[in-house]
Amino acid sequence: MNPNAAVLGEFMKDVLSIVLGGGQGTRLYPLTKLRAKPAVPVAGKYRLIDIPISNCLNSEIEKIYVLTQFNSASLNRHLYQTYRTSSFSDGFVEILAAQQTPENTDWFQGTSDAVRQYLWLFESWKVRDYLILAGDHLYRMDYRQYIARHRETNADVTLSVLPSDRKKASSFGLLKIDDRGQVLSFSEKPKGAALDEMMVDTTVLGLDAESARQQPFIASMGIYVFKKEVLIELLNKRAADKDFGKEVIPSAIEGYNVQAYLFDDYWEDIGTIESFYHANLELTRYPIAPFNLFATDFPIYTRPRYLPPSRVLDCQIRNSIVSEGCILERSTIEHSVVGIRQRVDSGCQIEDALFMGCDYYQTDGDRQADLAAGRVPLGIGANTTIRRAIVDKNVRIGKNVQIINKDHAQDVSCEERGYCIRSGIVVVLKGAMIPDNTII
């Protein structure tokens, strides 16, 4: 931890964090079919929402609101069960759901509109700065350093940024800065000629010449710090603006001191099935994954479940993560993430797979009853092969099943059969049942 952390922590008491968790998450469908995007499980035992909240708590920010809207039941339940603060502290993690009021009968229309609809509440807090966060990013950031930079430059708004290559650049808001870090222009997800216009010499961020050649764009991470009075003024003055990236930030550049803060560590926007899949499997990298789950000085918090340790019987497990409470028998598991309470019967071959696990155990009596009746019990049946797949929670996969995308399809929807294919990755739906001897 930075030696100045204790000093920096002193002025974090006047920071209010607002986590945007209301997006529909259409690009992560079907994982978002029954849950909000920030509630999607990650790394076998966490939820995406745990990342920004853990960053806040580790940065000594204790006043945290989470704005929710779509499919929010599981997200609300997770937050309630996980983050219960002391009665003797003014800290909190509180859910603010989209609601209709006499003044506003619409649901959240965008990121800044969501904040505007609860501005009356945020204004009531005697704080100096608002920290606006996304609920669907995988990264570890000490916000104390971020806030310190914001205040040292007397910024009205500070954007957290990182260098980007051309392939990814059009997915982000891009900006140009001067040699003092002040933002001169901003363009949200430009393409074609507009993308070319946003190319800069990123040595200004401290990159060497070769890295600057490969990453000639400065991308916004969608993480912002606003002075309290500036955010209130911007949202009230431009009441028609619905989105921070498309409207609020570009308008702020015209009349305010907008600064850039370089983040020089791992960060991944979990926006698509493909990025979600790869981000999870990257966690298995040896000896140190790009996102290190074992950083004891900056841990990731989640709901305590008090599960038993996993039981592994005569398995070969290589470059994988196995969560607690699993039962694995005589199988080979390679480059995979196995979620909580997952059961894998003997003879299975699992490779490049992400299992989200189960919410409950099936009793031995219920398993035997299922087998006797010809039904598929909870878990992965014997002699099944699974490659390059995401298996959602509470799935029943039978014996001798092959989930291998044998036709090398890229995008297929077979939800009536319990699965779909996105970017060549087979996704088995939450609660699905795949019969014995099925080949996908």
Give a summary of the structure in a few sentences.
With 440 residues, this protein is an alpha/beta fold. The chain has 2 domains: 5-282, Spore Coat Polysaccharide Biosynthesis Protein SpsA, Chain A (Alpha-Beta Complex); 311-434, Hexapeptide repeat proteins (UDP N-Acetylglucosamine Acyltransferase, domain 1, 3 Solenoid). The relative contact order is 0.11.
Question: How would you describe this protein?
Answer:
This protein is α/β, with parallel strands linked by helices and about 450 residues long. The protein folds into 2 domains: about 5-280, Spore Coat Polysaccharide Biosynthesis Protein SpsA, Chain A (Alpha-Beta Complex); about 310-435, 3 Solenoid (UDP N-Acetylglucosamine Acyltransferase, domain 1). The chain is built from 13 helices and 29 strands. The strands form 7 sheets. Strands 15, 16, 18, 19, 21, 23, 25, 26, 27 and 28 form a 10-stranded mixed sheet that branches. A hairpin with a 2-residue loop joins strand 27 and strand 28. The chain is globular. The N and C termini lie far apart (about 50 Å).
